[in-house]
Design goal:
The protein has about 650 residues and is of the alpha/beta class. It has 20 helices and 22 strands.
Length: about 650
């Protein structure tokens, strides 16, 4: 190696490579140019020092020189450690030790400039090719997004149109005189319809979240009533599977909070629905709400615990990804879009909260999520206050074989200053009732050995009608239907805080004989109004007509846009409700013609199931739009906005 030291002071670079492609010498100027020391490179193979060099022109020239002993001359492009590209003219000579390479920097020479320009041209060509490819990819992505949006819009419209009839007619039915049983059926029909609508909205919301188009609408809400409404949606599902659904809310949670109620319900329904879906028959689901202060700031912490199938460890990292279920078999066994948790996670993060879970396969799962607690200035609702003289000091006996239910009841009753005793054992509870004769009893229906009906019979046998008995149940049965007279009231689980208060209020005050008053439309119009309904679906025609007639509004119906244009030219209307998708002439076309024909144009309100077209409506200069399914409250709000009296 020392025999090459005389070349250390040469003004051009020199390197020697042996037949194993190892460096055995580099002179000082070359080491300086590549910013390396001799001990970093000498004795090492070329490909170890410069990975990928085996594919280069210089490597192939060395191979050629070693194999035939002939001199080689090439021009080599080399990127220095500082990122600068240089060009060398390399002369390779065969020697006994291997190959000696003399390198001459030609970057600043005419040839070097030509090579540099050629390199620039090659780079620009690659950039152009890459730009063209990216444009193609962008176009394909936009086309795919449009296809997806068009499909979702079409599906949304096709599903929402019949849903409008189902929900609207059920809501109309709720405004008639109904028995308690009938009212419960109608309420369940409305809840189930809302649940179906939530599945549709899941798909639409996922698209909106992807596009960043979801905004939160914060308002004052009764948080306990919000959770109860979510739980009530599943009462028939849990009854069918003989599941126990319980709900416990800490007394630290205020009555009213400020949040987006619609989105909060969406999150709870998604997680609670999963818990019920993946929990087998006779399993348990427990919803709990507490206040926590992890960093000094108050948060609402929700937890939903189940005794379901759990999530395998190898699937836990995938759970919040869209279109994901626990495993492929669950798609066959459990219905669902696989979007619920992904959407929930995005909405919770939009609310500046977080979500996580704990799970053990075949044992169950607990999902947690928290959101900032923003307390409303509204006072707590009446049922949360503790100063109720008619309840204070009352004696109650609780009998339930589920300790969580007992905890829930004790928590509620304690706030009203009611003295309660709780029993897991029905026999022990019965003996205490017969001995102490409390003011009222809360009984679970479905218990081992003795049911709530059995205990009630014993109480009535000894105390006749002297003790007030409430039965709590998730189920219905012939036994229960045949023995309803045993009970003063039957409460449906999970027990709603507000409903329990109203039941006790009606029982222990002079108003206990108040009969059930059917719901009424809040808007009573004194003046006469005539509205044109432009709609091609007979069910939707009938629905809107009936709602408006209940408000004493006269209505005419046009089956399509063409008829609407003619009718509007022949008669003066106070308002036009316009559907968009109709045969012969669409709502868009009809609106444009009517706007051209009329100087004193009546307000036009679009009624459509097309969720994705709402932004297009603004270009039509219309008064407003209402999305199907249409609710009575939507129309009442619209008429107040219009100033109808």
């Amino acid at each position: 190696m020392h025999s090459f030291d005389f070349m250390d002071n040469f003004t051009f670079g020199v390197q020697v490579i042996n037949d194993e492609f190892k460096y055995i010498y580099l002179n000082k100027i070359l080491l300086s140019e590549i910013k390396m020391k001799s001990d970093q490179i000498v004795g090492r193979k070329m490909q170890d020092v410069f990975p990928g060099i085996e594919n280069s022109q210089i490597y192939h020239a060395i191979q050629e020189c070693l194999s035939n002993g002939e001199a080689q001359k090439i021009t080599n492009e080399f990127t220095l450690p500082n990122g600068k590209t240089t060009y060398y003219e390399l002369n390779l000579q065969y020697i006994p030790q291997g190959v000696i390479i003399f390198s001459n920097d030609i970057t600043d020479s005419k040839l070097g400039k030509i090579l540099l320009e050629e390199s620039k041209i090659r780079l620009e060509k690659k950039i152009q090719e890459r730009t063209v490819e990216l444009e193609k990819q962008k176009s394909r992505a936009e086309a795919a997004l449009k296809v997806k949006s068009d499909f979702l819009a079409a599906m949304s419209h096709e599903i929402r149109t019949p849903m409008n009839g189902v929900i609207g007619m059920a809501e109309l039915l709720s405004y008639t005189n109904l028995s308690d049983e009938q009212q419960e059926y109608v309420d369940s029909l409305l809840s189930s319809s809302d649940l179906l609508l939530n599945i549709i909205n899941d798909i639409l919301d996922f698209s909106k979240l992807e596009a960043g188009k979801i905004e939160l609408i914060n308002e004052d809400i009764d948080i306990r009533n919000c959770l109860s409404e979510c739980s009530k949606m599943f009462q028939f599902k849990t009854a069918d599977k003989r599941q126990e659904l319980t709900q416990l809310i800490s007394n630290k949670v205020p009555g009213f909070i400020i949040t987006d109620e619609k989105r909060l319900k969406q999150i709870i329904i998604n997680i609670l629905g999963n818990a019920i879906k993946y929990t087998p028959e006779k399993g348990e689901i427990h919803l709990e709400l507490n206040v926590i202060e992890p960093n000094g700031d108050p948060y609402l912490c929700f937890s939903i615990k189940d005794t379901g199938i759990g999530v395998p460890k190898n699937k836990q990292n995938e759970l919040f990804k869209p279109f994901t279920q626990v495993d492929s078999s669950t798609t066959k066994n459990y219905e669902g879009t696989g979007l619920g948790l992904a959407i929930s996670k995005n909405i919770i993060e939009l609310m500046k909260g977080s979500i996580w879970f704990e799970s053990e396969e075949n044992i169950g799962s607990t999902f947690y999520f928290n959101i900032p607690l923003i307390q409303s200035k509204n006072q707590n609702p009446v049922y949360l206050r503790s100063n109720h003289e008619f309840l204070e000091g009352k004696q109650c006996v609780l009998i339930d074989d589920n300790p969580t239910n007992l905890k829930v009841f004790k928590n509620i009753l304690h706030n009203w200053k009611i003295n309660s005793k709780d029993f897991l054992n029905p026999e022990e509870g019965l003996q205490d009732i017969l001995t102490t004769k409390p003011d009222f009893v809360l009984l679970d229906y479905n218990m081992p050995k003795k049911s709530g009906v059995d205990i009630a019979k014993e109480i009535r046998k000894f105390h006749k009608k002297e003790i007030i008995i409430f039965l709590c149940t998730s189920y219905d049965s012939d036994e229960l239907r045949n023995n309803k007279s045993l009970f003063n009231h039957i409460l449906t689980k999970p027990i709603r805080h507000k409903v329990l208060f109203e039941t006790l209020c009606n029982t222990f005050t002079e108003n206990n004989s108040i009969s059930k008053i059917p719901k009424k439309l809040t808007l009573n119009l004194r003046n006469k109004y005539v509205i044109l309904i432009v709609e091609d679906n007979p069910v939707n025609q009938n629905l809107v007509k009936r709602i408006l007639n209940k408000m004493q509004i006269e209505t005419d119906i046009a089956n399509n846009g063409e008829i609407a244009v003619r009718m509007n030219s022949e008669k003066k209307y106070d308002l036009i409700f316009m559907d968009i998708h109709m045969p012969k002439m669409s709502g868009f076309e009809a609106i444009k013609i009517i706007q051209k024909q009329n100087q004193n144009l009546p307000p036009i309100v679009i009624m459509s199931a097309d969720v994705f077209k709402t932004q297009d409506y603004n270009s039509l200069n219309i008064y407003d739009h209402i999305l199907k399914p249409i609710k009575v409250s939507d129309l009442e709000s619209l008429f107040k906005k219009l100033g109808f009296e």
